[in-house]
Amino acid sequence: MSLNSIMGTATSGMMAAQTGLRVTSDNIANVNTKGYVRKTISQSNMLSNGMGVGVSIDAIKRATDRFLTTASLNAASESARSTVIAQSLDNVQQLFGDPTGSTSFFSRLDDIFTAFSAAQDDPSSALLRGQAMTRVDQFLSESSRITSSISKLGKDADTRISGDVDRVNDLLKQIDGLNTDITRAKVAGADATGAENVQSGLVDELSKLMNVQITPRTMGGVVVRSTEGLPLAGDGAANITYQTSPTATGYLTVQLANGSPVPIPLNISSGEIKGLMEARNTELINISDQLGEFTSRAAEEINRAANAASAVPAPAALTGRDTGLDAQAAITGFTGKTTIALTDGAGMVQRRIDIDFTAGTMSVNGAAGPAFTPANFMAQLNTAMGGMGAAGFSGGALSLSGVGGLGVAIADDATTPADKAGKGFSHYFGLNDIIRTNGYSPYETGLTATDAHGFTSGTMTFRLTDVEGGRIRDVVVDPPVGGTMQDLLDALNSRASGVGLYGQFSLNTKGQMTFTSNTTTPVTMSVVGDTSERGVGGPSVSQLFGLGPAERSTRGEKFFVNPAMEQNPSLVPLAKLDLVQAISGNAALVIGDGRGALALAKSGDTITNFSTAGDASSATMTVSRYAADFSGSIARKANTAESRKDSAEAVASEVESQRQSEEGVNLDEELINLTTYQQAFNASARLIQATKDMYDVLTGLVR
């Protein structure tokens, strides 16, 4: 080997050792730098004619483990998702209060029953009546407050999602831009680890917002893909958009850098954005929907008892709720018997109208009265009242009034009570309701498939989304003009122009319309918009039947105490119309009768049918039992979410710890490397010195 070869070998060794020292010192200097990944050098033997002629530095690399990096990114995504959901459910649980405390939401219902129980002992007490109304108002106010607060949490989630999506787009641009810097450095043989560390930190931040797949590029840098494999960064940055709607499910779309100009749906399965979308589209909606169902049924049972009772003396006028129907549709479908009594101030019946809906007849004071059909019911009822009272129907509401100081009281027959959709005559129309609503919950219209649907104009737009929350499609349906409810169902369920490919709308025996997803391809239905109108100025299809999560989840804030009873507690119905006493010539309504108050106090123990709400299945139980189950389910959801969050955080912490042990700087190892490279440098330097000495000797011999 020539002296020049020896000098070249020693020089390459010195250069390699010097590079190693520089890399090692850089590692030591950044031992506490967050996101720094220790560097290593890759070197190989230089050969010439099969002989070693030194060492070559191939590259300066980051000490990364692709498996641990992927595991860390996935764990961070799931941890962020679980944390958001746990925080949301914890916030909701706090809204309801401690279920064991006296100030929790569910204890408010017990306070109502307790107040009516106290009123039973002294039905004439204005103080006890007022206290009962106060308890009802407190319960409804709490329901409204919680519903509104849950809605605000959903809007806050919308805002956070939009902000996170903006940050994702910014990160994708930065990650894509760094690819150019990294590739340029690698082509030039320079150290690209600085840019790679910055890019790695951006990817870590991105993974907390949404789960992604990371693959290395051949010339350095990374390619970022969605879970479906859509390229988000690497060869151009994609742009993600959050498509939000105040009434429908929100979803993500992506505009690919080198793809179609039309945005396509983007599905993600974890990350903060996914957690926020689950909270906004599912978790919060489900709880708010169940709260609406609970409040609706509690109000229904209280109103059921109230409509079977009467104030003493009977009120001069009774005005019902807006049924959303016209008079003929509202009367159609009634069966059984009811009695409308016009009483004086002493509770004596002055005129009695017995109505047999099954037979279509009326009797007045025991004598045969006019026959009727649903079409002429209102006219015939006014005839039967004989000028002593009046009946009207306007804005979907029935009203009855007495003339000349007479009051109106109603009682269904004891053996064959009037019935439509499981409600008595007064209850169906809400003539003596203690609790009123601005909506139509519980959406039991009493309509059948053969009834005219009554929707004369407008368009319905439904959004169908998959189990991951991604939009499948929006479906636009126009109500068929002049058709029946079956015609409306057929239009909604059309496979060509309706939702028939994904699910079915159906009408139950109480006239409640529901959507059921196909079991093979589960989807969720929400309403983007609904301009349909029943009659002139009537409700839309989604309002009348409670279609879509937006309509159902907001009903808990639509209930309020009957203003007439709130202003005048003497109108609270605590007695019952006694028609047996009326036949005997005695007063049918008497002061001190507390049977109505007793029924109100026991209304929480009445078995009722709860519809499917949120993720809670339909059930048949008492209101009080449902309250206990509902309270428990909220606590279980919050506890489960907290447990999942803790588990996800533990996994993320463990994986991150393993990743740091692989990527982080270990001072002991670096000091060993420092010593090793130092010795290698010294050895190469000594070899150069020895070569110089040999040159000097040879030069001296030549002289």
Keyphrases for this structure?
3-stranded antiparallel beta sheet; alpha+beta; 5-stranded antiparallel beta sheet; 17 helices; 703 residues
Explain this structure.
This protein is of the alpha+beta class. It is built from 17 helices and 27 strands. A five-stranded antiparallel β-sheet has the order 13-12-11-10-16, with helices on one face. Strand 19 (460-465) and strand 20 (471-477) form a beta hairpin. Helix 2 runs parallel beside helix 6, helix 3 (105-121) packs antiparallel against helix 15 and helix 4 packs antiparallel against helix 5 (193-209). The radius of gyration is 39 Å and the shape is elongated.
* Fraction in helix: 40-55%
Summed up, the helix count is: 17
Tell me the Rg in angstroms: 39 Å
Q: Strand fraction band?
A: 15-25%
Q: Quick one: biggest sheet? A: 5 strands, antiparallel
Summarize the structure.
The protein is α+β, with helices and mostly antiparallel strands and 703 residues long. The protein contains 17 helices and 27 strands.
Present the secondary structure layout:
Layout: H1 3-29, E1 39-48, E2 51-62, H2 66-96, H3 105-121, H4 126-187, H5 193-209, E3 213-216, E4 222-225, E5 231-233, E6 239-243, E7 251-255, E8 264-266, H6 272-307, E9 317-319, H7 327-331, E10 337-343, E11 349-356, E12 361-364, E13 367-371, H8 377-385, E14 389-394, E15 397-402, E16 407-412, H9 425-429, E17 435-437, E18 455-457, E19 460-465, E20 471-477, H10 485-492, E21 503-507, E22 513-517, E23 524-530, E24 533-534, H11 541-545, H12 549-553, E25 559-561, H13 563-567, H14 579-583, H15 595-601, E26 607-610, E27 619-622, H16 623-663, H17 667-702
Helix pairs in contact: 1-17, 2-4, 2-5, 2-6, 2-16, 3-4, 3-15, 4-5, 4-6, 6-15, 6-16
